Structures are given as C-alpha cells and as structure tokens.
C-alpha cells in the first residue's frame, strides 16, 4: 500500500486537489494506495502534552505510515519552505521506524516560479536523516493556480510527468520490497 500524504491542512488546498489526481493515477495502474490528509489531523495532536503521549486519535495516521510500502509526499511551498504542520506531523511519528528504509517520493507545487523546489529540498534532508530511500524523480509544479481548472491539470506534459513518476515509484517500491 502506497500512502499519499497531502502535506498541508489548509482547507480546499491545491495540494489536496493534486493528491486526488495522483490517487487516480495509482488506482488506474492497479496499485493500492491511501490518502492521508493533514487537514484531518485530530485537534488534540496539537496539545503540548502530545509530545509525551500521542493521543489515541493520532494512531490511525501513524499506523498508515508504518504500514505503507512507500510514501508520496505532495507539498506546497509556504514562505520558502514546506508547511509547519507537515514538519509537526513528521515529528509526531514514531522514530526511527516511520521512515527507516521506507521509499519516499516528492511532488512540489507552488504559486511561484520554482514549484516548491525549496520545500522538497528541505524535506529530502529531513527524510535522508530518517534513512528513507528517496526516489530520485521529483515533480515540481510552478504557477499551480494557472495549471488547475475545475480540479484538473490542464497541462498534458505535466500529467504525463506525474503518471511516469507514479509508475516509476511503484516499480521502485516493488524492487525495494523484493
């Protein structure tokens, strides 16, 4: 099972729209996947006491990562980085097993011209520290507001790059599992 992590808790985000498209690509290939949307995080996870004892409502999120054969992180760029809620989510996951030897893939999107390049680079450092296997083919989507119409990508070349990435990551996951 590949987990698609929608890396923001912003309501109605473009990140969630892209995550839904990526989910379709995996399902069309017959690759089991699940979506984890940070907008669904339980409020009690943000209590200062959550560091010492994780709330029971967080368990399904941690369990989804621990049970996944690979994780695709779809991240926006906010203020030159990835959203704080994504870092907090990573911090709340069990260490080191959450990403230890787990394949990870990145998709970045942003209103600006770099398409979340900085966000993905920063996440690569964090997940490299966590000993994840980083899939080398990343996809960046600059000017995301002009690329989406009614929740669909209107750039056929970008759709093809995302589909190619999904197929390659599924194979990467399969080979690492073997």
Features:
single chain; 178 residues; alpha/beta; Rossmann fold; 6-stranded parallel sheet; 6 helices; globular
Characterization of this structure:
- With 178 residues, the protein is an alpha/beta fold.
- It has one domain: Rossmann fold.
- Helices cover 40% and strands 19% of the residues.
- The protein has six helices and eight strands.
- Strands 1, 2, 3, 4, 5 and 6 form a six-stranded parallel β-sheet that branches. The chain has a two-stranded antiparallel ribbon with strand order 7-8.
- It starts with a strand and ends with a helix.
- The model has no long low-confidence stretch (mean pLDDT 95).
Class per helix and strand makeup: alpha/beta
By CATH, the architecture is named: 3-Layer(aba) Sandwich
Give the distance, in angstroms, between the N- and C-terminal Cα atoms: 15 Å
Task: Tally the helices.
Answer: 6
CATH class: Alpha Beta
Name given to the CATH homologous superfamily: Flavodoxin domain
Number of domains: 1
InterPro entries: Flavoprotein-like_sf (IPR029039), FMN_Rdtase-like_dom (IPR005025), NAD(P)H-dep_reductase (IPR050712)
Protein name: NAD(P)H-dependent FMN reductase
Domain NADPH-dependent FMN reductase-like: 2-141
Pfam families: FMN_red
What is the topology?
Layout (H helix, E strand, L loop, with lengths): L1 E5 L7 H15 L4 E5 L21 H9 L2 E7 L7 H9 L10 E7 L7 H13 L3 E2 L4 E3 L2 H4 E2 L2 E2 L2 H22 L1
Parallel strand pairs: 1-2, 1-3, 3-4, 4-5, 4-6
Antiparallel strand pairs: 7-8
InterPro entries: Flavoprotein-like_sf, FMN_Rdtase-like_dom, NAD(P)H-dep_reductase
Pfam families: FMN_red
GO molecular function: FMN binding; oxidoreductase activity
